[in-house]
Design goal:
The chain is of the alpha+beta class. It has a 10-stranded antiparallel β-sheet. The chain binds beta-D-glucopyranose.
């Protein structure tokens, strides 16, 4: 996309200078606006042409049966799919008697700008109708970060060279027709007309539609109100039916005259509230927005984002494209989580319907690390959502004959939606990933109330799961057999090193938590015998190692499998899962995404430097990166073991995943984990930041092309600024009490406003590792 000629590279915005209908679906994803509660894809105001119309409300989904050719005990019976809710974005325009449609007439100019500081999406275009009348249309859109039910559009039409008669139809539209799915498993199921009408209204400037879903039992309401400024000839009317509520304005404009419309839209939904209650909810939200008005909403948006950038910005000298990409990434990750408030963060955020709107471990292992250091409150909210889904997770564990809780591999409402066991529930590591997110959040915020009320329960129930999933062999070693690790090209393996090491940390964290919160532990029925069992399991955890090769095994026996025929695999056969049977992928050494390499990042404490370097080189030649969750992790570990050039290439891949549409599926929504991974590649990769023994430890080193990297972090109520150049790093405490950190293992206390500067030691050079044939990352 930004390599596409209509996208420019700018530090604080994403600008498209022409409209290319070949990439319209991708542009709708990158221009999506969201606050984590409401999401609007960047569809054109007039609704068509479109790639994928999309308006989403976090949590609003429909159920569909999951039929199995051969059913089995414990298979989930019902799937969930995010639905495209009532579209409040639509503003159609008739110029004289021609609909404004960019496919007809002449589009003289078309520009869209997503301004990352103001949070506004601006569109300006000039269009000459087939009959020869020319108009300038300016629209500005926001999804409010401060009023979570609200989105708004300011829409202006100006006559340029002749008198024109205009009709503007501002609408709420339910059950829009969607393009058919193409069989790619990463695309969502398409449900025909998922919204059943309950109420429609059009009264003066006000519109409302209320619908409900048939099976998931959710009631969805959308309401809109309008302010119109136009010449005296301007008139308005409104009408509604089951699926459309329309406010129509007619006006006559002389050249230079403008018609301006402000459309305020509010959304609400509930699984329990009555029709009058949901109706009142959207009307109340609209009343609040009316008080703020367009300018008030825009000002609040700017203020919210100013505060975000002050605590989260990343600055880069030496690579303008990465500078733009990391801010774009931060903006979208913020949007995905900002107001999710006790709901999941889906793997696409609210930017598209890919992966059916499900959330995965992407949230805890990729998105929450960034948010913990930049917007910690939203992390607590996501983890409270996990806690709220514990009843379903406990049921799932019982069904599987396990103790504690088994969180779903993919879900919207907390119940398992994966019908494919090997890359579904078998990926039990998600439970340890949730525990890891709890520990990270608590240790970086010191939020004891959260630990007591939410953290302990999540840690205890996941520790119970591990104790019951694994077993001690006759020699006392603890094994977790028959599970799938992060690499989805291996499945149902024994002793996946990542899973075992994360489970070990989970078990230990549960012991610590109940020691600190005795009452909560007792209320959950934890006794000394149980904590002793957790300790024993953690102490005896197996981490498979191949002593002949001198590398850790991704899982027991992995290094003895046949190596995939990379040389015989043509480039168009990637991603492999769309071209080869899983049975063949599973029995060979071929890795979809960082697995053991991720274990070395998250559990760096159990590997020494030499092991890391050897393991990295070994797994590098097997990893094909068919998941967008891989490049960022490889960037981090490449940097740690000294391959800075390679790390830089991987940073590029993670950062440009969507802006360059590297996986050819940005049309279905953004890869939120990879966007978050851009930050991780910079901060944990080139910043070398790790958390060890409760302290932040930095080992900063830049690749040759980056001249400066600076970032800000929120840690234990302090604000720390880190600025790295090729020879040194400056640490500045921007806010708060003195903070103890480490620079290359050496203790350092940062206090006062003046920077503490430390030199960068020389890097140990090692032979460059190799990638599978044809899978070398693009050179930056
Ligand atoms: C990856 C998973 C990931 C999922 C959703 C899959 O392709 O292998 O690790 O959770 O996509 O992003």
């Amino acid at each position: 996309m930004i390599s596409h000629s209509s996208f420019t590279v700018e530090p604080w915005s994403l600008r498209e200078t022409g409209l290319d209908l070949d990439v319209i679906a991708q542009s709708e994803s990158v221009f999506a606006l969201s606050n984590g509660h409401v999401g609007w894809r960047g569809n054109l105001d007039e609704g068509e042409p479109h790639g994928l119309p999309g308006s989403y409300l976090n949590g609003v989904h429909e159920l569909h049966p999951m039929p199995y050719a051969e059913a089995g005990y414990g298979f989930p019976e019902s799937g969930q799919t995010v639905i495209n809710v009532t579209d409040g974005k639509i503003i159609r325009l008739l110029v004289d008697d021609e609909p404004f449609d960019v496919r007809y007439g002449r589009l003289r100019s078309h520009e869209r700008v997503l301004d990352l500081r103001s949070g506004l999406l601006q569109r300006t275009c000039e269009w000459t109708s087939p009959a020869g009348s020319t108009v300038r249309v300016r629209s500005t859109r926001l999804v409010s970060l401060t009023q979570r039910a609200i989105a708004a559009i300011s829409y202006e039409v100006e006559a340029l060279d002749t008198d024109i008669r205009l009709v503007v139809q501002s609408e709420l539209v339910a059950n829009e027709q969607l393009p058919q799915a193409d069989g790619d498993p990463r695309v969502s199921a398409v449900l025909e007309s998922p919204l059943q009408p309950e109420e429609h209204l059009a009264e003066g400037t006000r519109l409302r539609l209320v619908h409900c879903t048939a099976l998931s039992g959710l009631r969805v309401a959308a309401a809109a109100d309008h302010l119109v400024h136009g010449p005296p000839s301007t008139e308005a009317s409104s009408e509604s039916n089951d699926d459309t509520s329309r406010f129509t304005i007619t006006s006559e404009l002389a050249p230079g005259e403008t018609l301006r419309l402000v459309k305020l839209v509010s959304y609400g939904w509930s699984g329990v509230r009555s029709l009058p209650a949901v109706r009142d909810q959207v009307e109340a939200a609209l009343a609040g927005a009316r008080v703020s008005g367009w300018q008030g909403l825009a000002d609040e948006q700017r203020e919210y984002l100013d505060a975000f950038w002050a605590r989260a910005d990343v600055e880069i000298d030496g690579d303008a494209q990465i500078q733009q990409a990391v801010r774009f990434a931060l903006f979208h990750v913020l949007q995905a989580g900002a107001r999710a408030e006790q709901r999941a963060i889906p793997s696409k955020g609210l930017t598209g319907s890919g992966y059916d709107g499900h959330s995965f471990w992407d949230t805890e292992s990729f998105v929450l690390p960034l948010l913990t250091y930049t917007s910690p409150d939203s992390v607590a909210e996501v983890l409270r959502w996990r806690q709220a889904t514990l009843p379903a997770a406990r049921d799932r564990a019982r069904t599987l004959g396990l103790r504690g809780a088994t969180f779903p591999w993919r879900t919207i409402d907390g119940s398992e939606c994966s019908g494919y066991w090997p890359a579904g529930t078998a990926a039990f590591h998600i439970n340890a990933d949730i525990a890891d997110a709890v520990v990270r959040y608590v240790s970086l915020t010191g939020d004891e109330d959260f630990e007591r009320e939410t953290g302990v329960e999540l840690l205890v129930e996941t520790a119970r799961l591990w104790r019951s999933t694994g077993h001690h062999d006759p020699d006392g070693h603890f094994h977790i057999d028959g599970v799938t690790g992060p690499d989805e090209y291996s499945a149902i393996s024994d002793d996946n090193a990542y899973t075992n090491l994360m489970a070990q940390a989970n078990l230990r964290a549960a012991v610590d938590a109940v020691e600190r919160h005795v009452e909560q532990g007792a209320a959950l029925g934890v006794d000394d015998e149980e904590t002793a069992a957790w300790r024993d399991a953690a102490a005896a955890m197996t981490v498979p190692y191949d002593s002949a090769l001198g590398v850790h095994e991704q899982s027991a026996g992995f290094t003895r499998h046949q190596v995939w025929d990379f040389a015989g695999t043509p480039p168009e056969h990637y991603p492999l899962m769309l071209h080869y049977p899983y049975f063949d992928l599973y029995r060979k050494q071929v890795i979809k995404q960082a697995d053991l390499v991720l274990a070395m990042f998250f559990r760096g404490d159990v590997f020494d430097d030499e092991q890391k370097a050897r393991n990295f080189a070994y797994y590098e030649q097997l990893t094909v990166r068919d998941s967008s969750l891989s490049a960022c992790v490889q960037a981090v570990m490449a940097a740690e073991v000294g391959h800075l050039r390679l790390a830089y290439d991987y940073l590029g891949e993670a950062a440009l995943m969507d802006l360059n549409d590297l996986e050819n599926n940005t049309r279905d929504g953004l890869h939120i984990a990879s966007l978050a991974g851009t930050w991780t590649a910079l901060v944990a990769g080139f910043g070398g930041m790790r958390q060890r023994d409760g302290l932040l430890d930095f080992a900063p080193r830049l690749p040759e092309k980056l001249k400066r990297l600076a970032f800000t972090l929120q840690v234990l109520g302090r604000r720390l600024h880190v600025e790295i150049t090729d020879s040194q790093t400056a640490y500045t405490l921007v806010e708060g009490e003195p903070l103890d950190i480490r620079h290359f293992g050496q203790p350092l206390t940062v206090s006062g406003k003046s920077p503490q500067t430390r030199p960068t030691p020389a890097v140990i050079t090692r032979p460059a590792p190799e990638q599978p044939h044809g899978r070398v990352p693009r050179r930056r």
